């Protein structure tokens, strides 16, 4: 039975570390990092996410602001708010919660955020610059890499398999793994011999949104398994893309769902805000 990578405990430790860092920053640079989240409309899931971001941002001592705008906000009104925040030196990170209402073009809005304040890490990926200095990496991919590193195992030289080629997780996490000098394979819905490929992988990151697509028979003994999927199983319970029971038998390390990648993503958003702040004060 593999060891569990406890995302909840790891994120709790990270929050405490970042809280101390923020105290230190305040002494050293005379101000705290600022994160502003903009939410347009009433999407209930978004309301919950934004509330969680605010609670955690406050917990580490950031100057946290949420700008709530009505559903009927025009694109120009939203762009005006973003332009004001881009120019505000007290704001280090700007996040426009997605989805935005249909009459607003998401890509135009995302592109309007100053690249050095883009805590979602969308800018770097879109431009193919994920790794260039000055732009942060997207939160969930960054969370995956952090979780792998907590095992103490090396990434360099390992065969890492990313299952899923989405813009938000699959592609950027593959780039981050390459940066860590892994040998990276990206599998997707058209991949023919997934089991065969998976059995040669030292690290598997599953991010397709299909319950139990990775099963124990596909896992190399001792592999590190990171499950980004959040699905509702036939029994109504939350489950990931990896069949936990069978895969945990073979794995060296495995993240649970829930309690693995999930709790880490907001922690990484705050980390990104701290990194943007450091770019602004230094
Ligand atoms: N809505 C759901 N997830 C996200 C995210 O990671 N970033 C933004 N901006 N909106 C989201």
Give the SSE layout.
Elements: E1 3-4, H1 7-29, E2 34-40, H2 44-59, E3 63-69, H3 75-87, E4 93-96, H4 106-112, H5 122-126, H6 139-150, E5 159-163, H7 170-179, E6 183-187, H8 194-198, E7 203-206, E8 224-227, E9 231-232, E10 238-239, H9 244-250, E11 253-254, H10 262-281
Parallel strand pairs: 1-11, 2-3, 2-4, 5-6, 5-7, 7-8, 8-11
Antiparallel strand pairs: 9-10
Helix pairs in contact: 1-10, 2-10, 6-7, 6-10
The structure holds guanine.
Guanine (GUN) is lined by residues 49, 95-98, 120, 139.
Keywords:
282 residues; alpha/beta; Rossmann fold; six-stranded parallel beta sheet; three-stranded parallel beta sheet; 11 strands; 42% helix
Summed up:
The chain is of the alpha/beta class and 282 residues long. It has helices at 7-29, 44-59, 75-87, 106-112, 122-126, 139-150, 170-179, 194-198, 244-250, 262-281; strands at residues 3-4, 34-40, 63-69, 93-96, 159-163, 183-187, 203-206, 224-227, 231-232, 238-239, 253-254. The radius of gyration is 19 Å and the shape is globular.
- Beta-strand segment tally: 11
The first-to-last residue Cα distance is 46 Å
Helix content: 40-55%
CATH superfamily of the largest domain: NAD(P)-binding Rossmann-like Domain
Task: Quickly count the helices.
Answer: 10
- Described by the principal axes of the CA atoms, the overall outline is globular
Please tell me how large the radius of gyration is. 19 Å
């Amino acid at each position: 039975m593999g060891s569990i990578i406890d995302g909840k405990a790891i994120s709790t430790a990270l929050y405490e570390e970042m809280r101390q860092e923020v105290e230190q920053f305040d002494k050293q640079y005379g101000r705290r990092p600022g994160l502003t989240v903009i939410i347009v409309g009433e999407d209930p899931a978004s309301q919950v996410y934004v509330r969680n971001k605010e609670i955690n941002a406050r917990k580490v001592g950031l100057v946290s602001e949420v700008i709530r705008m009505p559903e009927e906000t025009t694109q120009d009104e939203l762009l005006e708010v973003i332009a004001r925040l881009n120019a505000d030196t007290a704001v280090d990170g700007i996040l426009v919660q997605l989805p935005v209402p249909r009459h607003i073009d998401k890509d135009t809005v995302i592109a309007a955020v100053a690249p050095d304040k883009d805590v979602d890490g969308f800018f770097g990926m879109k431009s193919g610059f994920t790794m260039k200095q000055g732009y942060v990496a997207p939160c969930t991919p960054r969370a995956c890499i952090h979780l792998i590193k907590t095992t103490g195992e090396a990434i360099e030289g390992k065969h890492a398999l990313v299952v899923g080629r989405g813009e938000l997780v699959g592609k950027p996490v593959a780039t981050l793994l390459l940066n860590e000098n892994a040998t990276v394979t990206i599998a997707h819905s058209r991949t023919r011999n997934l089991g065969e490929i998976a059995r040669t992988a030292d690290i598997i990151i599953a991010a397709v949104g299909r319950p139990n697509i990775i099963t124990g028979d596909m896992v190399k003994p001792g592999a590190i398994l990171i499950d980004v999927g959040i699905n509702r199983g036939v029994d109504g319970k939350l489950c990931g893309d990896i069949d936990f029971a069978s895969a945990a038998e073979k794995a060296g390390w495995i993240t649970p769902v829930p309690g693995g990648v999930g709790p880490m993503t907001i922690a990484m958003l705050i980390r990104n805000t701290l990194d943007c702040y450091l770019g602004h004060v230094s």
